[in-house]
Amino acid sequence: MSRVVKPYGDTLGDGKVQLSFTLPIDWSEAADEAARQLVAKMGFVDVAVAEGRRVASGFSFFVVYASSPTGVDVDAIGAPTAKAHVLSMEDVDGLIRERVGRKVSVAGACIGTDAHTVGIDAILNMKGYKGDYGLERYKEFVTYNLGSQIAVEDLVRFVKVNAIDAVLASQVVTQKGSDVTNFTALAELLEAEGLRERVILIAGGPRVTNLLANELGYDAGFGRGTLPSDVAAFIAQRMAEHSAA
Amino acid sequence: MSRVVKPYGDTLGDGKVQLSFTLPIDWSEAADEAARQLVAKMGFVDVAVAEGRRVASGFSFFVVYASSPTGVDVDAIGAPTAKAHVLSMEDVDGLIRERVGRKVSVAGACIGTDAHTVGIDAILNMKGYKGDYGLERYKEFVTYNLGSQIAVEDLVRFVKVNAIDAVLASQVVTQKGSDVTNFTALAELLEAEGLRERVILIAGGPRVTNLLANELGYDAGFGRGTLPSDVAAFIAQRMAEHSAA
Amino acid sequence: MAGPEFSPGARNLAAMELRIDREAVDASRALARAIVAPISDFIAAHSTVSVERAVARLLGVDGTGGDDVPIPNLVGERLGFERLSTGIARWLGAGVAETGAAPAEVAAKLIGGSLHAETLAGVPDGAARAALAPYVAGGLARLDERRRERKVLLARLPQAPPPLLYVIVASGNIFEDRTAALAAAEAGAQIIAVIRSTGQSLLDFVPYGPTTEGFGGTYATQANFRIVREALDEVSERLGRYVMLTNYASGLCMPEIAATAALERLDMLLNDSMYGILFRDINMKRTFVDQHFSRMLNARSGIIINTGEDNYLTTADAVEQAPAVLASQFINEEFAHRAGLPDEQIGLGDAYEIDPDREDGFLYQLAQAQLARQIFPRAPLKYMPPTKHMTGDIFKGHLIDAMFNLTSVTTKQTIHLCGMLTEAIHTPFLGDRVLSIENARYVMNTARHLGDEIEFKRGGIVERRAQEVLAGCRALLERVAEMGLMRAIEAGVFADVKRPADGGRGFEGVLERSPSYWNPFEEALSSPRAASFTGVTAS
Amino acid sequence: MAGPEFSPGARNLAAMELRIDREAVDASRALARAIVAPISDFIAAHSTVSVERAVARLLGVDGTGGDDVPIPNLVGERLGFERLSTGIARWLGAGVAETGAAPAEVAAKLIGGSLHAETLAGVPDGAARAALAPYVAGGLARLDERRRERKVLLARLPQAPPPLLYVIVASGNIFEDRTAALAAAEAGAQIIAVIRSTGQSLLDFVPYGPTTEGFGGTYATQANFRIVREALDEVSERLGRYVMLTNYASGLCMPEIAATAALERLDMLLNDSMYGILFRDINMKRTFVDQHFSRMLNARSGIIINTGEDNYLTTADAVEQAPAVLASQFINEEFAHRAGLPDEQIGLGDAYEIDPDREDGFLYQLAQAQLARQIFPRAPLKYMPPTKHMTGDIFKGHLIDAMFNLTSVTTKQTIHLCGMLTEAIHTPFLGDRVLSIENARYVMNTARHLGDEIEFKRGGIVERRAQEVLAGCRALLERVAEMGLMRAIEAGVFADVKRPADGGRGFEGVLERSPSYWNPFEEALSSPRAASFTGVTAS
Ligand code: B12
Ligand code: B12
Ligand SMILES: Cc1ncc(COP(=O)(O)O)c(C=O)c1O
Ligand SMILES: Cc1ncc(COP(=O)(O)O)c(C=O)c1O
Predict the structure, then answer these.
(1) Interhelix angle for C284-301 vs C254-263, to 10°?
(2) Which residue has the higher pLDDT, C174 or B77?
(3) Predicted pLDDT of residue C4
(4) Beta strands at A141-145 and C346-347: parallel, antiparallel or unpaired
(5) Nearest-5° Cα angle at B157, B153 to B159
(6) How far is C457 from chain B (nearest CA, A)?
(7) Mean pLDDT across D350-373
(8) Segments in chain B below pLDDT 70
(9) Does A65 touch chain C (CB under 8 A)?
């Protein structure tokens, strides 16, 4: 079964999309036409340049509306989420007590030169996020928050020394792929140290998706709007499975 | 010689474009992924869904940033404008006196059921637009402003009866191609009445481009921000050529 | 039962009072009364084909005949101007008396030819009136029933406090419009306007049935009204707040649209006493007569009228036109009172159309909006968004809309038309509407009580501007009072457009009433209320 | 020559005065003095490797040696802590006395090994000082020359009136940054901040040469400063208004960056007395000593400092943190005065970070911004845009920025950081910057004189909020005064972060001054001014 959808303006199937972009050329009526042809070349039809103007010498800005013939089959998309069906804090602790039988140690850090700790803090700190308690508040987690700008080497050393079960890495700065670089470095070093199999490896940050994390060899990835309980539930269930196996 | 340019984000050639659109599906993380895949299928790369959310039952809204590999050769674009090199009101009147030798009659109207007269009035009325006087102010034009919601038949009858030299048609409402329909109807009826050759036929409106007008068989088309003097200069020069021939 | 169901908000004006010249306000009201009085006399002596068709519709005459001409039009044509000048009711009543059939059937017979007007001429007026009485009562009952429904719904499903967020749907297809209306309601819209196609206002009949075409909107038909009303009633239940529906009356069929709107429980109608004349070249006599009866129907059915002062601003400079807008508001108010509309049902219009690039333009907008708020304290003011200066730059446009939203919440406007960032580009997309509603909700929430928090400096820019607009308005009304309204319009005093008294569209449809003219609904609706209301403003 | 070249605007405060407790303001200032006094004593007894390297730079020591280590660092290492504790100047002076070469050469010899510290130990202090005197004079002359240049340019190419529009460029490549800076200036930006790469603040050296990499920005190097400064000087001429340049001092190299910024005529520097401690875990003693000397240099070179109070708001709730922000402003002001900075050069920070979905949040923002404006009337307040609550919804974000712009123009802020609609997504694109500047220009123009037009209701939400913030600030400062600033920071009183007095980065670089310690620039810069300025606030 398949259900193909296109963008919706005011009529089903009209494919209407809004675009805006800057071109490195001076403005003129020809520039408007260049913008129109460019968007047409991108594959859009009914291209209307609603706005085109000079913004600086050598630069023009455009707002364009156009129709896209492209559709996507929404039924072919598996829910790409690591969010297990929600468990309460009690359930998570219960699950760990019964199925794991010992406390689970979690280490989180904002790696590389990234100093954006608000996100990882939201997941780890007692206080939590949007009324959802952080991992420190769970009875069955032993939580270490290494803080900001932690070199991958230091994090891995810490994991080794403290026999950490779950490693949580945060990346908020994504410019020039710095996030991917650092995430990869972490995964590889854990591999090299022979620790990868032993830990649950989790990536997080505003640009992270579960799909991306998996591609990078992580067990899970959490993005925008993640709640601590999403993460807690995932860790507990993975730990339960491991112990089962 | 050719100069291919791509959209500019913060680095030459990065091809960065902003898109926004609505999809007729309920929101979920899968919907975000659907949006990502859709934009990827459109041919963009580095697709980042910056925002995805429910806006109503059955509808989700997305803001996406992505890179387009598509470029356009700006040197291959002839300036698609009907704006003759600017002439002052005096020059236009002078040109007509010398080269045409009689007053030029102009009839303008907002055709079909379109009642948006502000635009055509801006071109015709004394007052003009943005400090640029309208055609009524020119000594050598005899100007008729038929006003709003003028049936194509009535306009053509008027042209015939008054031996009009230049016909100015305005269309502001463009929904469902009503503008193209009405412009076409006018051109065809003039043709049928054997008047087409005798008149200079000009289209105008916010969505009109000179290219479009030419496609529709018009002598010229004027769009956003047109000044009366642009139109006056075009008419005067065409009339001059005609009389020359 | 004067619209107590509406709470345009017992607006707290304490906070931000501007000092304005009360005497000038009273003088302006007196002038408006003087200006409208002679027009009222003219109205009392005339009717129009549309007024008569509306009467027929209220008596249950509906549907279409050969080549889709509406039955009310066919009956009118069949009877002819001569007979219509005594009122269509008289003829239908005679038919009922003669045949015992309902007015709808009588109409069918007349058209079909199985019944002849000639024969009906013989029926005595008394008999005709008596025969029609139950149907007249039935018609009024339907109006009152719809109004009661609204009252109950509003009590059970209260609206969020004003400014009431109003958006348009204009896909040109009533079914897409319904989809759009539901989505908008979920996003927070409290009033949905279904935009009609270009040119409908020039049609001398009301199209019939559901429609899926049109430019810039689709037709205003009773079926279309019902389709959206039903959808909105459902969503109102789901959301727990009543979502209002509105459309346009102005044009050649004001009375008929007022009648059908009443029957389908629309909550508001665009209904201006001069818009058709000035902006659609509809004959002035036709418009004056039509607007009066249509507004009487609005009054009875509890429909809030919206006037069209915004149109003065879209065609000329907003700063210069401010006095004209205020003058028009006074005139619209007076016409409305005379039709029996209480202040709570008079949605006077204004718009945020000052050039966005003018220094301190925002202060001028504040001044004008606050002035109207103080002069018409109980009116559910209708505030229109920036449109003329909107461009293809949707980002700038979104900001201009935000300043408009801020002005509206600060000056406590009642009916708030949400501005669209794509105003200059296309009729709103579903997504545009959502963004525009979110714009209003964000701004109005983050600055909710600004109006209660600030005071304007005495003698400052804002206060001086308000004084100036009021003075200009008074001067304008004095001129109009001198010339007389019809002559003033002929002379181009309003919006710089000149309209001859006997020119324009629909003049042929104006009827001089014969001495025996009878309009049972007018009779019923000209309760002492109308009078008493003009009284109200006097006090 | 205390910054008269800046016109943070003889701000007209008449209009919108909030009634605030003057006594609480004076008490808070007195508390700030009490809090900072003991820290000043500590500063007077210490130096840091970065202070000494800055001295070397001012004497002309620059460039890099083996594997790109800057010469100033190499000299420092070669001399070692022991010798540095008497001041690097003494050793370079001795070298000059000994060899007759310039300090730069002396440095080279020391590193190269052709000259030995041991030999220099013998040179009497008097001789060393005398030998260095001309170079010290030369260093100061360069600073004064840059300042004179700025003064002349500002007179010839006056800025547009405040709020001064400030945007960041952060492509991570200095050449793209230059392109971006020029485009922004044309679009109306008056101040350009070149954002440096993540992590630079943790480097104990200043990178060298033009750089084309970095994350979230590229490095702050003297060459990068020059590249953008030259480009901006050109565009300033073209536009007829002086465009300012700024970067960050805070971190492990505050004094050195202050020195290089002075030499390249930057106009402002992010320079906070506690930011490094709280938000970068830099040792507090290191930071206190560094910020003092760096600010002395800023004072002399006419550079306006920008403080980082906004950081309190991005990490915790903005409504709760308001008193902490004000307290930090008082402390930053006091530290600044002690370093000789006049009010006109103290750009105290604040930010628009209240949850946009909070009812009346805009009124709270107005209250806080106006409070700062009244308490620091002559300071060029730096107002930061909404960042924390910005999301991927660029349309909503653009509106939040608009309300921020409105607050800024209404409360007459001086340095206005334009918010970016893409704040939550990426470092600004060229187009984003244009839209954000146009947002500010539109709002500030259409509401230009709003602040002169309105008054706040006595005892209303806004006034009560301002009182509350001031009271909270006073209480906080009292607590800190009791504990002492260092203990307070250890206890986590600020931003909920605890920092041990001897922990954190760069502690090893703190030097106890030996009795014979000598810093010729400090000497020259500790004119009576410093004192006199603390005096100023007392009055
Ligand atoms: C606050 C902030 C700062 C603060 C950080 C304070 C601190 N202690 O964290 C300060 C002021 C110090 C700062 C500095 C800088 N910042 Co900053 N900053 C932000 C800002 C405004 C908000 C980030 C935030 O706190 N979000 C709130 C949290 C809760 O959301 P979150 O991080 O996404 O986390 C959630 C999820 O992602 C997830 N999650 C996150 N991490 C993890 C980890 C795991 C394991 C899991 C399971 C889940 C998870 O769960 C969280 C809760 O749902 C953003 C802009 C924005 N509005 O997003 C810019 C932003 C992130 N900063 C940016 C930059 C470039 C910088 C600077 C380099 C310079 C500058 N431009 O300001 C410096 C350098 C700092 C450094 N060395 O890294 C850019 C990054 C651009 C990019 N995409 O690469 C942004 C986007 C702003 C911009 N447009 O320029 N910044
Ligand atoms: C003013 C206005 C009205 C006024 C018109 C008053 C009047 N007498 O003109 C009123 C209120 C009556 C009105 C009504 C309606 N309008 Co209207 N209106 C506008 C508005 C706000 C401004 C148009 C305008 O005056 N622009 C200023 C002039 C100077 O610009 P211009 O027309 O582009 O003209 C310039 C050039 O195009 C060129 N030009 C134009 N014509 C010609 C002709 C020639 C020969 C030449 C050489 C040049 C030329 O020169 C002019 C000067 O540079 C636009 C939105 C917008 N901001 O654009 C909507 C808009 C045009 N209206 C619209 C619609 C749908 C309607 C209605 C159907 C319902 C509604 N949604 O309001 C009704 C029906 C009216 C009808 N029967 O046509 C839509 C059209 C959508 C579309 N693309 O199809 C718009 C875009 C608004 C919207 N987003 O819904 N409208
Ligand atoms: C009062 C009034 N009536 C009707 C309309 C609708 O216009 P039209 O006559 O094109 O249907 C408007 C729109 O501007 C209006 O303001
Ligand atoms: C006062 C201050 N200094 C420096 C910075 C730059 O931060 P970093 O230390 O990451 O360079 C900031 C940015 O938030 C700041 O506010």
Answers:
(1) 10
(2) C174
(3) 44
(4) unpaired
(5) 115
(6) 34
(7) 98
(8) 79, 245
(9) yes
For tokens 């960041």, the residue is D168
Q: Whose CA is nearest to atom 62 of ligand 1?
A: A173
Give whole-number Cα distances, D20 to B204, C47, D351, D378, in Å: 60, 67, 21, 17
Per residue in D216-257, pLDDT (tens digit) is 999 999 999 999 999 999 999 999 999 999 999 999 999 999
Q: Is C395 on the interface with A (CB under 8 A)?
A: yes
Q: List all residues of chain A from 14 to 43 with a beta carbon under 8 Å from chain B.
A: 16-25, 28-34, 37-38, 41-43
Instruction: Tell me the C-alpha to C-alpha distance, in Å, between residue D223 and each of C220, D261, D364.
Output: 69, 10, 43
CA–CA distance, D135 with B93 (Å, rounded to integer): 74
User: Closest-lying ligand to the alpha carbon of A200?
Assistant: 1
Q: What is the pLDDT of residues C13-55, one digit of tens each?
A: 445 889 999 999 999 999 999 999 999 999 999 999 999 999 9
Query: pTM for the whole thing?
Result: 0.96
b/e code B157-192 from CB counts within 10 Å (16+ = b): ebbeeeebbbbbbbbbbbbbebbbebbebbbebbee
Ligand sitting nearest the alpha carbon of B229: 2
Whether residue C204 is predicted with pLDDT greater than 90 in this model: the reply is yes
Q: Which two three-digit tokens encode residue D45?
A: 């007894």
C18 touches C480 (CB < 8 A): no
For residue A54, the cross-strand partners are: A60
CA distance C431 to D393: 12
Q: Residue C98: name the closest of C131, C72, C74 by CA.
A: C131
D151 contacts chain C (CB < 8 A): no
Mean pLDDT on A209-237: 94
Tens digits of residue pLDDT in C327-342: 999 999 999 999 999 9
- The CA distance from B133 to B230, in Å, is 11
Q: Which residues of B are catalytic?
A: 127
Contact B56/D at CB under 8 A = no
> Any idea which residue has 């030259």 for tokens?
D230
CA dist., res. C500 & res. C278, Å (int): 11
Q: Write the pLDDT tens digit of every residue in C220-251.
A: 999 999 999 999 999 999 999 999 999 999 99
Is the per-residue pLDDT at D185 higher than 90? yes
pLDDT of residue C538: 27
**In chain A, how many H helices and how many E strands?**
7, 10
pLDDT tens digits along B36-76: 999 999 999 999 999 999 999 999 999 999 999 999 999 99
Q: Which residues of C22-52 are buried (b: 16+ CB within 10 A; e: fewer)?
A: eebbebbbbbbbbbbeebbebbeebbbbbbb
Residue B153 confidence (pLDDT): 97
Report the distance separating Cα C260 and Cα C245, nearest Å: 13
From the CA of C317, how far away is ligand 2's center (Å)? 16
Measured CA to CA, the distance from residue C427 to residue C429 in angstroms comes to: 7
Regarding the beta carbon of C358 and ligand 2, being less than 6 Å apart is answered: no
Q: Pinpoint the alpha helices (H) of D45-173.
A: 49-58, 71-84, 88-99, 103-112, 117-121, 125-156
CA–CA gap between residue A184 and residue B42 (Å, rounded): 29
Q: Which of A8, A53, A65 sits opposite C425 (nearest CB)?
A: A65
B245 CA: distance to closest CA in chain C (Å):
41
Atom 15 (ligand 3): residue with closest C-alpha? Answer: C308
C247 to chain D, closest Cα gap in Å: 29
